[in-house]
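Kindly inspect the following:
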Amino acid sequence: MFLQVSRGRQKLADSISTCKVLVVGAGGIGCELLKNLVLTGFKNIEVVRPVPAVCLCGCAS
């Protein structure tokens, strides 16, 4: 029984580590999602941020 569970977990871990994930947006919710994906074991993550970042400190002007 334990061997079957171990094999099942290994298959799941292999599937997660090779799965491709696309995250659109890296704002407040996107950052939390990215953190959770990495901690879960996803390794192939691509992040697309459609809105350009805005410098709020005024140093870019």
